[in-house]
Protein: Glycosyltransferase RgtA/B/C/D-like domain-containing protein
Amino acid sequence: MNNNLSKIIKLFVIPIVIFFVFFVIYKTKATNINSRYLFDEYAWIGRGYYFELLLKGDFKNNLWETYEIDGDPKLASYLYGLTLYPDYLKEKKIKGNDYDMVRYLIENNFYISGFFNNLSKQKYDKYLPENFISWQESGAPRTILLADLLKQFGGDFEKTVNIITKARLGSVVFLSLSVSVAYLIFISTFNSIIVSLLMTFLYGFSSLLTRYGLVAYSEPIYLFLFNLLLLNLFLFFSNKKQRFLFIIPSIIICAFLNQAKISGVLFLPLIIFLLIIDSFGKDIKMFFIKIFFIIYFFLLIYITIDPFLYSNTLRKVVFQYQWTHNMSVDQQTYFKSNALLKIKDKISFINKSLLNNGNQSLTPFVLSNNIYINSFIRFIKLFFIFGLIKSILEFIKEKQLTKRKVMLIVFVYFYVSLLFYLRLTWDRYLIHMLIFVFYFTGQGIMFGFQLVKYLQLKAKR
Structure:
C-alpha cells in the first residue's frame, strides 16, 4: 500500500502540483505590462481565425487558400484562436451572426492581409475602421515592452495589449505542461525525487525557456509535444510486452508536433531508427508492417489537422517545406550578422548558447547577479560533462535498448540535425535542447552521488 501511495504521489500528485506552481508563476510573468512583446506574436495571434473555421467545419473558406502565401503549420494559430474564443463569442453575441473572428481581430488591431488571397482581402478590407492602428508596420522594434507599445500608440491600443496577454495564456498552459512532462522524464531515469525536482525547477526557470515559451509563439506547444513524445518513447522501450500500443500515441504526437513546427517530422525517422534497433533479428515482416503503419497514419493525421492540405495535397505539403526553407535562406541574406554558413560556426553557436558563461540561456530568470550566474553555469557545465560521459559509458556497456540509451541517441540525433537546418543565430531554435542539458546534468549529479557512496564504502574497508 505504501509503495502504491508513493507511486501515486511521485507520478501523479507531484506533476500536478508542478503544473499549478508554474502556471501561477508563468501567468504573472506573461501578462505583466512590463513583459516583452516579440515581433512574430502579431502573425500567430492574427491567424487565430483558423480555429473558428476548423471548429465550424468551414473547410472551403477562401481563408484556407494560402498557397504561395503562407506555409506555416496551423497548430499554434488554433491554440491562440482557442484562447481568445470565449472573448470573441461575447462580442459575437452582441454584433450578430455575420460577425466572425477575422472582424474581431481587426477591431483589436490585428489584420494580416499579407496572408490573405485576393478574395479574402476584398471581403475584409471594408471592415477596417478609421481608427485602426497599423502598429506592426509603424516601425515598432522586433522586441519591445508592452508598456512601451502602449505609450507609443496611446489609450486606444490598450485593447490590443489585452488581446496579446489573453492569447499568451495558451502559452502559459502548454509551457507549464512541458515542465510537468520534463519532471516525468527525469523521475523515470534518475529514480530520485530530489534530483528530479531540482532539474525540473532549473529547467522551468531557465531564461531561454521563459523568453520564448511565454509569448504567443509556436514554441510552447511544440515544446510540450516534443517532451511528451520523448516521454512516450521512454514508455515504449520500458514495456517489453505491449510496445506496439505505444507506437500509436507516438504517431499521433509526432503528427501534431509537425503541425506545431515543420521540423517536427524529424522525429519520424528517429522512431523508425529506434524500431530497427529494437527489431534487429526479429520478425522482419512485422517490422515492415509497423513501418508502413507509422508513415501512413502520420501522414493521415498530419493532413487531417490542416484543411489547407485537403486539396492538391502532395503539392501543398512540398510547398510547406520549400516555403520554410526559402524563408530561412532569405533571412540569412536579410539578417547577415546572424547568418550561420559553416558547420563549425553552428557547432560553436549551439555550444556557446547552451553552456557558455556569458550566455544566459540556462540561467534562471530570477538570477541577476553576474557572480551567481557564472557560478551556476560552471556548475551546470561540470555536471553536464560528467553526465554525458556516464551516459556514453552506459551506452557501450548495456546490451538492451534502455531509456538511457534512447535519451543519448535522441540527443545526438537532434544535435546533428541542427547542423543541417539551423541557419541563424536565433537561440529560440535551440529551446527543445534544454531538456537534454538538464537531463545530462542530472545524470552527472547522480554519478557524483554514486562516486561518494563508493568512496565511503572503500574507506570503511
